[in-house]
Amino acid sequence: MNAIFIHDLRVETRIGIYEWEKHARQTVRLDVELGLPSDEVFRTGDFADALDYAAIVRRLQAFAADHPHHLLERYAQAIADLLMNEFGAPWVKVRVAKLGAIPGVKELGIVIERGRA
Questions:
Q1: What is the mean pLDDT of residues 89-109?
Q2: How far apart are alpha carbons 58 and 65 in whole angstroms?
Q3: What is the mean pLDDT of residues 21-34?
Q4: pLDDT grade for 79, boundaries at 50, 70 and 90
Q5: Would 8 be classed as within a structural domain?
Q6: Which of 46, 67, 74, 75 has the fewest CB atoms found within 10 Å of its own CB?
Q7: CA 105 to each of CA 11, 12, 22, 30, 59: distance values in angstroms, whole numbers, following the listed order
Q8: Are 95 and 42 in contact (CB under 8 A)?
Q9: How far is CA 57 from CA 11, 21, 40, 43, 112, in A?
Q10: 110 belongs to a structural domain
Q11: Helix or strand or coil: residue 57?
Q12: What is the CATH number of the domain that holds 42?
């Protein structure tokens, strides 16, 4: 199994079921792992054969800014779909955490793993 990971990416998005959440930006923390589409990069050492971490981060930031979701579960699924479809990852693990959403709780969220059928 070969994968890249991006941990503790903070993005601003609108997410939630309450009326105030639909209009207020919130910071959520993303942790993602992506299976590599091939192992070619290990033989060649060529950037063209690698997944571009910076491009993935930019895409996740843009997605968060433009796509409000009501539920963390749907948001996590949309991220998984994006990573597999746009970056060719054969599998992904996505963790989405709301920070300080409930008094006394540091973070809460969802973890999903998805792969191609």
A1: 91
A2: 11
A3: 88
A4: very high
A5: yes
A6: 46
A7: 19, 19, 21, 17, 29
A8: no
A9: 10, 24, 22, 25, 19
A10: no
A11: helix
A12: 3.30.1130.10
Q: 């709780």: which residue's tokens? A: 105
How sure is the predictor about 1, in pLDDT bands with cuts at 50, 70 and 90?
Answer: confident
**pTM listed for this prediction:** 0.91
pLDDT digits 0-9 by tens, 30-71? 999 999 999 998 999 999 888 999 999 999 999 999 877 888
Residue 114 within any structural domain of the chain? no
Tokens 């930006």: give the residue: 25
Full residue range of the structural domain in which residue 65 is found? 3-100
Does any domain span residue 112?
Answer: no
pLDDT at 37: 92
DSSP letter at 69 equals B
Domains in the chain: how many in total? 1
What pLDDT does 10 receive?
A: 97
Q: How far apart are CA 92 and CA 80, in angstroms?
A: 6
